[in-house]
Specification:
Length: about 270
């Protein structure tokens, strides 16, 4: 791990680029509840950045700030070297940021294919009128979108469920479809809120492999909220640790695991 903003290669040969996003002194309040208290950290191009912490620590809130779903009460979000103005979430999505949710948010009556297709929305041009006016263009766009979706279906090994309504799929596969929908946007920055929660060991292994492959093959930068420390250790380059809205640790996994504040937050061990 380096403090410099220059790209570097990790011990296991992974290339980490410059700073892609910087969160500066973020505070987020809901009425009297302070969900995030003055937190700063950066996200570097090509890395897998984990956010961990006990329940209610503010992890999902932080992801919602990154995705533009929440506007921080104080602080600034810098993306690609520029301060991000207050922006609606769909505008943020158009900048190449996609996400999955802690609770699955798919259209349960729609097929796997159609659900993933909804992820292409940022790649579709202005709606029905332009489609009616430009038949040829709309057709080309439709073909390109279909091809992109087919590639994702192959990549995630879900050909066998392409026509199945997602509400009928087991939980682990629904999570995989949701990842597919996020990938359909071809994001530069992918935000995953507990992609492995509620999964069995085998499903977790599959999901871990897909996350690593996305990062490897497409160079996608990933921010991952995860409770399973084994998974965090295996996947992440750097970890931010939150507790009661504060940042209590930030660094490579082995370093934060040895951090006494982190141990205390997880185990409730006191130092006296
Ligand atoms: N929309 C909201 N309105 C009011 N309070 C909220 C809202 N969203 C989150 N909070 C509060 O902010 C704090 C942080 O919640 P958040 O969901 O970000 O935690 P988390 O770390 O993701 O927890 P978990 O591990 O349980 O998912 C909690 O006290 C929560 O009750
Ligand atoms: Mg959460």
């Amino acid at each position: 791990m380096k403090d410099t903003v220059e790209p570097y290669v990790t011990e296991d040969g992974r290339t980490i680029g410059g700073v892609l996003m910087e969160l500066k002194h973020i505070t987020l309040k809901f009425g009297g509840v302070v969900a995030i208290k003055d937190i700063s950290f950066d996200i570097r191009e090509g890395e897998i950045r984990a956010i961990i912490g006990p329940n209610g620590a503010g992890k999902s809130s932080m992801l919602n700030v990154i995705s533009g779903f929440y506007t921080p009460t104080e602080g600034e979000v810098w993306f690609e070297g520029k301060k991000r103005p207050q922006m609606r979430p769909y505008k943020v999505a158009q900048q190449g940021i996609a996400r999955t949710f802690q609770n699955i948010a798919l259209f349960s009556g729609m097929s796997t294919l159609d659900n993933i297709m909804t992820g292409r929305i940022t790649h579709m041009s202005a709606g029905l009128f332009s489609q009616a006016a430009w038949w040829g263009k709309a057709e080309r766009e439709e073909t390109a979108n279909r091809e992109a979706v087919e590639k994702i279906i192959d990549f995630l090994e879900i050909q066998h469920i392409r026509k199945t309504p997602v509400g009928r799929l087991p939980y682990g596969l629904q999570k995989r479809v949701e990842l597919g929908r996020a990938l359909a946007a071809e994001p530069r920055l992918l935000l995953l809120d507990e992609p492995m929660a509620g999964m069995n060991v085998e499903e977790k292994e599959d999901m871990s492999r897909f996350i690593l492959d996305v990062n490897d093959e497409f160079g996608t930068t990933i921010v991952l909220i995860e409770h399973d420390m084994g998974v965090v250790m295996d996947l992440s380059d750097r970890v931010v640790v939150m507790d009661y809205g504060k940042k209590i640790g930030d660094g490579p996994p082995e370093e934060v695991r040895a951090n006494p504040d982190v141990i205390e937050a997880y185990l409730g061990v006191s130092h006296d």
